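Practice problem: predict the structure.
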Amino acid sequence: MGDLIAIVSFVIAVIGAISAVFIANRDRQSMASIVAAAFLISFFVNVNEQSRIFLQIACIVAFAVSITGAMVAIFSNEESKRTSAMVIGVVSLGTSLLILFSYLKFQPL
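Answer:
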């Protein structure tokens, strides 16, 4: 049951993050960011270290979201989109690295 909650939480966190990057309304960006953060916390509370395939997919998706946030931050003309995209990009990159090093036990050379 915990794995299912973790999967749903991660999917909703990604949807919230992508929404926060692409929505133009500042209030909706804030709400999407709050939803993404809450479900990301729920993901880390419920994830199991034994579900390595899901953790690998989550690591790749979080990294893709961070790249998307970086691209929007670089190429957007709107200040609110740039700010939101930078925050989402940094949080997503941190999530990707946390999954990689803490849960997947990646050991660089």
